[in-house]
């Protein structure tokens, strides 16, 4: 009874924390924007996948003599990757602008344009190009790639939020509204009402960017990337950082709160950016830099869903004797193959279950560690393709690594390990009556 009372109190406290975090306007905006970005990243990733596995003359289908014509189509896949991944920050800024404007009761897509203009206004439009003779040439009226790809994400988020909050406030000021005759169509009148708020917003953000450079000698991008984004990327790219993030998610799941949603505002910008960088490097034939990416999370730490519950389902089929658990397992197998495991978490239940909660928290930490060291040692390739999370295990490892068998074997090992971890806890559950469980 005391243990149950403690769990109830813990659930209530953490539930209140989760509610407050999820209700924060900027957290909601970032989550919604990055959820909308996932199709963009997957599209770019599949462009790279087709480039490597279909159109490549050395390793793809194009190496077969009668399919050699496919090599001529490789620029199509390269273009798909470029227009998606190389402009990810621009798309994110646009979507954040729209999402935040919605919360401020401003409809339409124009706030997204305001956010993009504001972001572009704080970045330089010159680039020092280094020739093969090590001679610098100043190129004007260009926007360097680091300002449009994933390196500019955090600055983009800050500028989008600041600009739309300012724009929204200015839009509410009656003195700034341009009054038009009643005969003017409403959409034209609304455009003129946004005129002065737009001018003041862009001018204000641009001025702020100018002041930052004048005072520090650095652009806002350099400050945000080096002080905030790069250190965070370093933390998440280390094994302790990703394990801590997974541990937090699992604890929230155990008390009945969607754990992935809780860590999403931190996880998505960093891990989606990491896979985008890997995809671009792979497409360019460069060394792939990042081990920990969004596909890494799905491949090694979330097979069958959070907690690697595919291992639990197989363990129950092997040694489970309780009729209720076996029945839930049968119902959960089909969705579990596609990494949907809410029926297991809430039906078994794992939530507030002191027996199954232990392996549920522990298993992804162990399998993630196995996947990490297998990748560090070079046995498994780094992920280079963002595959949809419902992609079944084995298939997702093969596609995410552009056909690496070592990654597939590593994932199979992780699944076997997950079964072994869950087995003793299933046996303990066999001895517990359904009423107690």
Got a strand count?
A: 2
The rounded distance between the terminal residues' Cα atoms is 13 Å
Query: What is the tally of helical segments?
Result: 18
Characterize the main sheet.
2 strands, antiparallel
User: From N to C, what is the helix and strand string?
Assistant: HHHHHEEHHHHHHHHHHHHH
Shape annotation? globular
Structural class: mainly alpha
Quaternary state of this entry equals: single chain
Mean pLDDT value: 85
The Cα radius of gyration reads: 25 Å
Taking pLDDT < 50 over at least 5 consecutive residues as the criterion, the unreliable ranges are none
Give the neighbour order of strands across the main sheet.
Answer: 1-2
Strand content: under 5%
Proportion in helices:
55-70%
Describe the structure in your own words.
By secondary structure, the protein is mainly α. Helix content is 67%, strand content 2%. It has helices at 2-23, 25-53, 74-85, 88-103, 110-121, 153-171, 186-193, 195-216, 220-237, 239-254, 259-283, 294-301, 309-319, 323-337, 342-347, 357-376, 395-400, 405-430; strands spanning 126-130, 136-140. It has a two-stranded antiparallel sheet. Strand 1 (126-130) and strand 2 form a beta hairpin. Helix 4 (88-103) packs across helix 5 and helix 13 (309-319) packs across helix 18 (405-430). The longest helix is centred in the N-terminal third of the chain and has 29 residues, at 25-53. It is globular. The two termini are 13 Å apart. The relative contact order is 0.09. The mean pLDDT is 85.
